[in-house]
Model the fold of this input.
Amino acid sequence: MSTATTVRRTALNETMRKAGGKMVDFHGWELPIEFAGILKEHEAVRNSAGIFDVSHMGQVFVTGADAFKLLQITNANDLRKATPGKGVYSHVTNEKAGLVDDIIAFCLAADRYLVIVNATTSTKDYEWFKAQAAKMYVKVENKSDDYSMIAIQGPNVPKMFDTFAPEALKLPRFGIVEKDLHGEHCYISRTGYTGEDGFEITAPHSIINKLWDEMMELGKPYNIVPCGLGCRDTLRLESGYLLYGSDVDDVHTTYESGYGWVVSLDKGEFIGRSILADQKANGVKVRLTGLTLTGGVPRTGCKVFLDGKEIGELNSATYSPTLKKGIGVGYMTPPDLKPGTPVEVEIRGRRVKGEIARTPFHKGTAFSKVLYTGKQ
Amino acid sequence: MSKPEELKYTKTHEYIHPGAETIVGISDHAQHEMGDVVFVELPRVGQKLEKEKPCAVVESVKSAFDIYSPVSGEVTAVNDAVTGEPALLNQSPLENGWLFKLKPSNPAEADALMDWAAYQEFVKQAAH
Done:
């Protein structure tokens, strides 16, 4: 058997190449790391508009009388918050309260849910849901191979939707609407991974290139730019969003990841609940903690020191184009370090001064209480 | 300085402008491959460098890159402008974005480096 694996290409591959995308292998998917440059793309999303091919993301449909029951038992968050037309960000927990994945579960109708899962975990998630669904009246379908997905992100993006999809402008954050586009059934949600207002569109491969071109056209007045994985990472880390496989995994719990607000202990039983209840009562030993520094760029794996003693290492770290300094998050002990605490980060054998910082490092328009609802 | 034809190049994409005070920087191809440069760490004036040994670090948003001294010698000056404004490496790698100057201890080392035509060919081959 050959160990060589084929790299998967999205339906937008050709379009990405023509737009000047520098293509890289991202966990088995060929995707652009950058087009005009990470900084330019990052700034375009923060200040105006950018568009991403996120077709590597997975779609799992859960339908049937027990759809709610299945999602409620497999998630730390309370699915009752996801009424029809709304979604919730949640953690799918295992028996030890580690994360099977972090997901968004959208309620399309009382018995019909669309779960957006990570690329690297889509098969694992599907198998997990299937296993938990054994005795339930529910159908779990992994349709990740059937759909492409684009994310249009930035403070000016909602204005692009005035003519394109005015109904999407009525959506709250995490809202979703089903709409026929170019004759195909699509899903538009007010979500993203950048910290800015914007939308994600899940659509069949057959029309995704048309949609991309349409967005580029609608975005012209706002100088929309194609964006790659590079700025996707700087944008999400500034926003304090977790990256599955780097910041969270099968081992660390939701409380340890600093996402306690996701856990709904009072909703009733769910997988891993007893461990989370114990951590809620007695505290955690480590917590994913943020830091900033100047005088270098922190990277994944850099060790962190407090008063000369190693307290953890960075799970994700980069240069923050918005803050113009280094930012990073890592599991640290003690778990209750106060923002402003001076620490040191080891970069190439040298200790660079930094300080503990609150996350999100930066709050973009996605964190705004008032979103654009359309012309008038 | 500095037209690309007047420079000599290493396989690790540094350039030198040869002379009693040799100027060291990174090629336009290198800055393009690195992407947006956000941090630069230079050697100290007076530091003795050995040919092909790491002597500086250039960090882009994506990653950190070691810079290898193209020839041996003693550092006579460093470009403080690039530590203050790392984007100069992207904007002007051959002029305002130079890294440091050194006094070569063995001028013959420079002769072994690639000229512009050879470097262009090397970059083309590496792309395949």
